[in-house]
């Protein structure tokens, strides 16, 4: 019975690596620990004030998580001895250790993390299995059918839709099928087993000069199979495409058998594309075991950039124009003023790339424009890729468009810093949790003509709901546009509030999140751009895809998995 | 009790909230003229004017607004459409649109506002004793203006309404509203221009056929609203109510101002009901003439100047009540299927779905009911109601006694009474009579309707004069009707059914409510709730007892019940006469004009012959309402022809309704009414 080493590196009750986290040091100054990230080991003198000001948090008021798992709290496993016997015969490793089971009982939704810190799940997987190849998976699924068990596929565990939570009323043995040992990479044609984690995949391909270019913000921990199962989206989709554009071939084991296409033609007209039943199936139909994915040579040249706009409206108008001219860089993101200011608060004490942005800007702007308002400014960060000459050409084109919207180029450093922060921001929630601040992010996609209204209304709705529900401090309610398309954009929100004085914060939090989603839908936004539905957003499925649409999915499920072996209850 | 099946489908219970009659708290009034009488008008007009603004305001000049409107995707789309339809070049249509905008656009200038403030101070002080308003309402409004775009929805009884409202807002340092005012003002050159400069914008009375006009207008209003440039003000009733009864709402403008929220172009929109009530209406005599079919003079400036005589008269007090701002977001929550707007690009014009139309209508009724709730009732209104039941004259002491009795009843029904300074009944009555000496006289302790010169003149003239006085008096009694209508229709139903079975009384009530829905304001689709409210109020003043099966009139109640029945008698009788006329005298099809003049003659003859005393049947308002009700109930058909509308009545159906109305046949039970 093996416990993979990745788990040992990770926090059991928070995000990311054990050694990397935000803390307030002995002097009461914020610091980011560890050596993994560029921010590692740096002191962040402005963060404390930001937290006090924007969230009303104070370092005197601290809550602490339990430090380790109390195994006696863990619900005892529902065992199926015959199944375990069969596993041993098939030489498939498994575990019933409490730590392993709890580790795979959740993703990274706020309420899941809070349960880890202070409570216990009602139901967790009873046994973890580690197949190492497609055939192992086929065997496990066969055994699950034979013994009537429930399987929940597990990739990297970065789900943010309650997709990994075990249905509390599941009476059968729940098998968590962890794909993390399926990373055998056959022939450098990028035919890959589905358990491989994003950063490992890129590293291995990189050794031969290739990449997939698929970079979701969770790529350090999420898996190829997980991406397929959730219809993931990577930061650089403008060049490489989203996961549905990247996969050429998928193999999935279902209770009914293996589903795959018979050839690898780049496009087929053979009725509805069966890949579309697999992409986004969220583990309810089977286990994705092998994926053939497109690869590209690693780009010769990369360049970051940034543009400052006088206000968010101008910024959105500019992004829309760039999308219209179809000249978006590999990545382009526009953050609102709140995040713009937040970026400032993560400025370390000493560091070359972290020169005071705002101060420089003030001088800059006063000479260029009169009367700009630092409380309106917002910034777009850019990432260009390709051969050098083309990148420079492209860069000029984009900056020329920006100029039409009074956008001013604000340097490479600011751009780079923006992207570097994406990976560390996820660690910030754990810091907040220590100081009575709970928060979450959520996302949507929306047609261009509604982007501005949606951003404004959703933020305002959050503020209003907080007020009405007795939240005593103004919440953090902020957004950014993270992807552009011909017909619209992806918008990403952060929402956090200080819950001191509220008796049932998690309930309040959930009510507000529901209200925010209602607001998104009322503004013509989608249920999800890339996080998926899971169990968290099921209630809106019908209005999202219509009765008939839901019926179609149900009938597929019915055919593929009549006994509901893949019983995680996502989606439908 | 359960709701009739047909009713429950449109319950709208979120919008309709049962009134609380006992603990209804209303704000106190302040007189603003008092200060005007004590300090300099000039200084007042030159005061520093810095109104609070909407938090999301993007400041811009009127000319910039015009450009935003002309360049908007919405308008550009309509222009292209029209160009395709008519073959006209888009440039020419664009030019036309620009002219329409010029004609329409308001143009806020502080100078004009100051002239306005100065002259209105002078005029108002001469016309009125007091202008009283609730300052708390102003404070709420001030708050609301900063939070979200605001729509002001005043009641409409007089031209003074919007002058007064702008004046009050100026006084309290609030943004002057952009007013959607009828075009007839444009004729009043000088005042028109002054009005425009102080914020009014103009709209042609009818432009239903003119797509471009509608598009320009709608875009203009929405632009002002979305930018939070100024509160928008218009009259739900569409026109001044000549009868002082609240008119059934018009939906066009309301649907325009609701659209930005429904499309989520703004986070929310506040609707503010405002009740403006005149102790004596400036246009009272003009209205009575109009109702009797004497053509209305065009509103010219010189016409208004001729009215200078008016300036020497006393018009008593005005009460303005600013209601609680109502959040459209709250009203719409859970009611609107949000997909409606999600699948069509927002610049394309979109006809509201049936669901949305119902919602708009419910909102309109809700706002009118809120106006009604806060309309101040003066002693004179009670006097008028009593007098009309005691023609030609009543003993002064008896009148005072009855007025006091009616005061209590009105309060029990939730009416908003203002009884000046706790005057004793006699004094209050006397001062009311003095104020309205053009309508009533006190002769030898007898209060008589003022229809002098009656003896001289032809019978026609006599009838006409009498009708004038009665309609003028009626316009005051009418202000009581919307407070009284629910219990009164229960009372009428009790009399009509001659039987106390609850189910039958309800059937009759629902029938009457259906017929009178153009006459009085009922929230759509809640007949049963209205019935329950009526019964509740009657029970509360011990007039009836309701058991599981029956409704019994108490001894004390018979006075109340017969008073209430008499109060609504003109309507019951009037409609009966109108049905009789339609059954006997009309041809297959007729236009409205024929109907009005034919019915007018018919009524005149009845009155001249003394076979009826229902003078109010001569009111064109009642005549039109009765016809509209028949169309609504499917008894008459309204067809569009080249020269306006033609009506055709199904005599068979009408006959049946008339018979039920005269209690000659029992009323068919409403579908599935379970009580
Ligand atoms: C900080 C953070 C940043 C994120 N950023 C992004 C982003 O930029 N873009 C994006 O798209 N998402 C993002 N996500 C969401 C999440 O990372 C994605 O949904 C990711 O695709 C999940 O992969 P995973 O391997 O972690 O799957 P898991 O979380 O383990 O599982 C997710 C779901 O897929 C099913 N599943 C997993 N593997 C398989 C398999 N092999 N076969 C069948 N079903 C399977 C599981 O049963 C479950 O229902 C982010 C999440 C976090 C916490």
TrEMBL record, chain A:
Protein EC: 2.5.1.26
Residues involved in substrate binding: 429
Matching PROSITE patterns: FAD_PCMH
All residue ranges annotated as the FAD-binding PCMH-type domain in the record: 121-298
GO biological process assignments: ether lipid biosynthetic process
UniProt keyword annotation of Mitochondrion present: no
Keywords: Acetylation, FAD, Flavoprotein, Lipid biosynthesis, Lipid metabolism, Membrane, Peroxisome, Phosphoprotein, Transferase, Transit peptide
Family: Belongs to the FAD-binding oxidoreductase/transferase type 4 family.
Function statement: Catalyzes the exchange of the acyl chain in acyl-dihydroxyacetonephosphate (acyl-DHAP) for a long chain fatty alcohol, yielding the first ether linked intermediate, i.e. alkyl-dihydroxyacetonephosphate (alkyl-DHAP), in the pathway of ether lipid biosynthesis.
Name of the protein in its database record: Alkylglycerone-phosphate synthase
UniProtKB/TrEMBL annotation, chain B:
GO biological process, one term: phospholipid biosynthetic process
Gene Ontology, cellular component aspect: cell junction; mitochondrial membrane; peroxisomal membrane
Cited CDD domains: LPLAT_DHAPAT-like
Enzymatic reactions: dihydroxyacetone phosphate + an acyl-CoA = a 1-acylglycerone 3-phosphate + CoA; dihydroxyacetone phosphate + hexadecanoyl-CoA = 1-hexadecanoylglycerone 3-phosphate + CoA
Residue ranges of domain Phospholipid/glycerol acyltransferase in the record: 150-279
Compartment list: Peroxisome membrane
Alphabetical keyword list: Acetylation, Acyltransferase, Membrane, Peroxisome, Phosphoprotein, Transferase
Topological category with respect to the lipid bilayer: Peripheral membrane protein
Top-level lineage group: Eukaryota
Function: Dihydroxyacetonephosphate acyltransferase catalyzing the first step in the biosynthesis of plasmalogens, a subset of phospholipids that differ from other glycerolipids by having an alkyl chain attached through a vinyl ether linkage at the sn-1 position of the glycerol backbone, and which unique physical properties have an impact on various aspects of cell signaling and membrane biology.
PANTHER family hit by this protein: DIHYDROXYACETONE PHOSPHATE ACYLTRANSFERASE, GLYCEROL-3-PHOSPHATE ACYLTRANSFERASE
Family: Belongs to the GPAT/DAPAT family.
Subunit structure: Part of a heterotrimeric complex composed of GNPAT, AGPS and a modified form of GNPAT.
Descriptive protein name: Dihydroxyacetone phosphate acyltransferase
Organism placement in taxonomy: Eukaryota, Metazoa, Chordata, Craniata, Vertebrata
């Amino acid at each position: 019975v093996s416990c993979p080493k990745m788990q040992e590196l990770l926090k059991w009750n928070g995000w990311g690596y054990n050694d990397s986290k935000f803390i307030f040091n002995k002097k009461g100054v914020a610091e980011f620990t560890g050596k993994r990230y560029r921010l590692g080991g740096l002191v962040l003198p402005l963060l404390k004030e930001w937290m006090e000001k924007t969230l009303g948090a104070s370092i005197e008021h601290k809550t602490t998580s339990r430090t380790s798992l109390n195994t006696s709290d863990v619900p005892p496993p529902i065992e199926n001895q015959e199944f375990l016997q069969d596993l041993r015969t098939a030489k498939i490793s498994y575990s019933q250790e409490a730590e392993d089971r709890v580790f795979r009982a959740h993703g990274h939704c706020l309420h899941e993390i809070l349960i880890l810190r202070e409570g216990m799940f009602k139901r967790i997987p009873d046994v973890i299995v580690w197949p190492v190849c497609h055939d192992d998976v086929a065997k496990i699924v066969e055994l699950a059918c034979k013994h009537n068990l429930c399987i929940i596929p597990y990739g990297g565990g970065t789900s943010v839709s309650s997709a990994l939570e075990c249905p509390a009323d599941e009476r059968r043995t729940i098998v968590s099928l962890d794909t993390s040992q399926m990373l055998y990479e056959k022939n450098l044609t990028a035919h890959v087993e589905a358990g491989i984690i994003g950063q490992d995949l890129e590293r291995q391909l990189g050794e031969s000069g290739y990449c997939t270019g698929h970079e979701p913000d969770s790529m350090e921990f999420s898996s190829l199979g997980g991406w397929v199962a959730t219809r993931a989206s990577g930061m650089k989709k403008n060049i490489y495409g989203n996961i549905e554009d990247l996969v050429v071939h998928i193999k999935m084991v279902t209770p009914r058998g293996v589903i795959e296409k018979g050839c690898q033609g780049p496009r087929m007209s053979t009725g509805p594309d069966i890949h579309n039943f697999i992409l986004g199936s969220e583990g309810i139909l089977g286990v994705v075991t092998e994926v053939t994915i497109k690869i590209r040579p690693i780009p010769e040249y990369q360049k970051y950039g940034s543009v400052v706009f006088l206000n968010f409206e101008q910024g959105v108008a500019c992004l829309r124009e760039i999308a219209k001219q179809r000249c978006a860089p590999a990545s382009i993101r526009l953050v609102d003023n709140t995040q713009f200011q937040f970026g400032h608060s993560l400025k370390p004490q000493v560091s070359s790339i972290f020169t005071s942005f705002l101060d420089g800007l003030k001088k800059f702007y006063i000479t260029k424009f009169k009367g700009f308002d630092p409380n309106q400014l917002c910034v777009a960060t850019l990432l260009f890729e390709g051969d050098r000459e083309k990148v420079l050409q492209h860069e000029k084109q984009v900056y020329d468009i920006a100029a039409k919207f009074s956008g001013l180029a604000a340097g490479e450093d600011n751009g780079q810093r923006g992207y570097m922060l994406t990976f560390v921001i996820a660690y910030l929630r754990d810091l907040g949790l220590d100081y009575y601040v709970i928060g979450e992010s959520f996302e949507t996609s929306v047609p261009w003509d509604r982007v501005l209204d949606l951003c404004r209304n959703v933020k305002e709705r959050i503020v209003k709901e907080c007020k009405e529900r007795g939240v005593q401090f103004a919440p953090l309610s902020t957004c950014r546009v993270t992807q552009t398309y011909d017909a619209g954009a992806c918008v990403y929100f952060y929402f956090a509030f200080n819950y001191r004085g509220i008796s049932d914060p998690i309930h309040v939090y959930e009510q507000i999140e529901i209200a925010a989603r209602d607001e998104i839908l009322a503004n013509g936004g989608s249920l999800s751009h890339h996080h998926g539905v899971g169990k968290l957003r099921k209630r809106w499925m019908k209005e999202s895809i219509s009765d008939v649409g839901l019926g179609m999915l149900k009938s597929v499920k019915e055919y593929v998995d009549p006994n509901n072996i893949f019983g995680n209850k996502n989606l439908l | 009790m359960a709701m009739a099946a047909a009713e429950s489908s449109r319950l709208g219970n979120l919008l309709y909230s049962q009134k609380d009659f006992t603990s209804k708290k209303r704000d106190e009034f302040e007189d603003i003229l008092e200060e005007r009488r004590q300090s300099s008008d000039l200084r007042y007009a030159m005061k520093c004017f810095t109104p609070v603004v909407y938090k999301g305001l993007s400041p811009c000049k009127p000319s910039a607004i015009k450009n935003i409107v002309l360049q908007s995707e919405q308008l550009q789309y309509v222009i292209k459409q029209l160009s395709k339809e008519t073959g006209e070049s888009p440039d020419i249509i664009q030019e036309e649109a620009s002219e329409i905008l010029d004609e329409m656009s308001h143009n806020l200038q502080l100078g004009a506002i100051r002239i306005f403030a100065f002259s209105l101070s002078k005029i108002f002080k001469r016309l009125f004793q007091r202008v009283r308003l609730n300052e708390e309402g102003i404070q709420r409004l001030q708050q609301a203006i900063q939070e979200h775009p605001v729509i002001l929805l005043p009641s409409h009884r007089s031209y003074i309404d919007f002058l007064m409202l702008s004046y009050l807002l100026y006084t309290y340092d609030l943004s002057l509203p952009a007013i959607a005012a009828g075009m007839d003002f444009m004729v009043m050159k000088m005042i028109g221009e002054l009005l425009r400069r102080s914020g009014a914008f103009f709209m042609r009375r009818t432009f239903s056929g003119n797509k471009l006009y509608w598009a320009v207008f709608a875009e203009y209003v929405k632009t002002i609203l979305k930018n939070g440039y100024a509160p928008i003000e218009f009259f739900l009733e569409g026109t001044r109510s000549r009868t002082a009864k609240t008119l059934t709402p018009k939906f066009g403008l309301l649907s325009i101002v609701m659209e930005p929220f429904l499309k989520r172009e703004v986070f929310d929109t506040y609707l503010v009901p405002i009740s403006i009530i005149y102790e004596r209406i400036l246009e009272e005599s003009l209205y009575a003439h109009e109702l009797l079919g004497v053509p209305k003079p065009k509103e010219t400036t010189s016409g208004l100047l001729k009215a200078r005589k008016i300036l020497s008269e006393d018009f008593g007090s005005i009460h303005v009540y600013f209601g609680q701002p109502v959040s459209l977001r709250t009203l719409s929550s859970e009611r609107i299927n949000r997909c409606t707007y999600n699948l069509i690009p927002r610049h394309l014009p979109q006809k509201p779905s049936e669901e949305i139309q119902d919602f708009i209508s419910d909102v309109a009724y809700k706002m009118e009911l809120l106006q009604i709730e806060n309309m101040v009732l003066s002693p004179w209104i009670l006097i008028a109601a009593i007098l009309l039941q005691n023609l030609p004259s009543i003993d002064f002491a008896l009148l005072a006694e009855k007025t006091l009795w009616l005061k209590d009843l009105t309060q029990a029904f939730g009416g908003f009474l203002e009884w000046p300074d706790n005057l004793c009944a006699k004094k209050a009555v006397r001062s009311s009579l003095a104020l309205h000496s053009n309508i009533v006289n006190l002769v030898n302790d007898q209060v008589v309707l003022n229809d002098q010169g009656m003896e001289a003149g032809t019978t026609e003239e006599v009838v006409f004069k009498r009708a004038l006085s009665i309609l003028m008096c009626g316009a005051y009694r009418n202000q009581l009707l919307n407070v009284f209508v629910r219990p009164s229709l229960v009372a009428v139903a009790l009399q009509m059914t001659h039987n106390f079975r609850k189910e039958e009384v309800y059937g009759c009530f629902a029938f009457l409510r259906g017929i009178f829905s153009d006459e009085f304001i009922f929230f759509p689709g809640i007949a049963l709730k209205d019935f329950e409210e009526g019964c509740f109020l009657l029970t509360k003043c011990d007039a009836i007892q309701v058991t599981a099966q029956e409704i019994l009139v108490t001894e004390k109640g018979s006075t109340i019940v017969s008073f209430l029945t008499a109060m609504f008698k003109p309507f019951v009788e009037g409609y009966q006469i109108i049905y009789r006329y339609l059954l006997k005298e009309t041809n297959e099809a007729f236009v409205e004009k024929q109907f009005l003049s034919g019915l007018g003659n018919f009524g005149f003859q009845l009155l001249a012959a003394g076979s009826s005393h229902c003078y109010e049947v001569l009111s064109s308002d009642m005549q039109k309402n009765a016809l509209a009700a028949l169309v609504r109930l499917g008894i008459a058909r309204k067809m569009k022809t080249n020269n306006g509308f033609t009506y055709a009545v199904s005599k068979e159906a009408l006959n049946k309704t008339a018979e039920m109305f005269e209690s000659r046949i029992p009323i068919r039970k409403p579908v599935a009414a379970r009580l």
